[in-house]
Design a protein that fits this description.
- This protein is 37% helix and 17% strand.
- With 150 residues, the chain is α+β, with helices and mostly antiparallel strands.
- It has a domain of 94 residues: 2-Layer Sandwich (GMP Synthetase, Chain A, domain 3), CATH 3.30.300.
- Helix 2 packs across helix 5.
- The longest helix is centred in the middle third of the chain and has 21 residues.
- The chain starts with 16 loop residues before the first helix and ends in a 15-residue tail after the last strand.
Length: 150
């Protein structure tokens, strides 16, 4: 007893380039195409929150750096996708450490911080972490030195 073979359908062929170009000019394809926007992607934002929760623990105790113990993770946002994240770190005013030195220490500890993040997130690949150091403003000294004498 033989099997009856049905003719296979081929893949759907895309519309010719002229037709696609014409639809694009008329604006008809805009509704059908959904572009990836990392700022609105729910899973990417979830990853950012997980990283934001994991990094303070790593900075506070695991890294062993006195300067970074007082650092605060202000925010984490995607850089083009979930593969690379921008971490904003706020450091309290410290005359002995410039933001450049804090950034250099963060860069030196990036592999260790990435390993700490890997233990906390539920992903196969750990994102690359890029850091930006934002010096915090001292609220007690905010009104002083503004150039006005009363």
């Amino acid at each position: 007893m033989g099997h009856s073979k049905k003719p296979r359908r081929g893949r759907a062929h895309p519309a010719p380039a002229d037709a696609q170009f014409e639809r694009a000019l008329l604006g008809e394809d805009r509704d059908r195409e959904r572009k990836f926007e990392p700022g609105r992607d729910r899973k990417t934002l979830q990853l950012c929150r997980q990283v934001q929760r994991a990094l303070p623990l790593a900075l506070g105790g695991e890294c062993g750096d006195e300067l970074l113990r007082d650092a605060y993770v202000d925010g984490v946002e995607p850089l083009g996708g979930a593969g690379q994240l921008l971490v904003r770190v706020t450091v309290p005013p410290n005359p002995s450490a410039a933001p450049g030195e804090v950034l250099a220490r963060l860069a030196a500890l990036a592999p260790r911080l990435r390993a700490a993040v890997a233990g906390e997130i539920c992903r196969k690949r750990v994102p690359v972490l890029s850091f930006v150091v934002v010096p915090s403003v001292d609220p007690a000294g905010a009104g002083e030195g503004d150039g006005r004498d009363e």
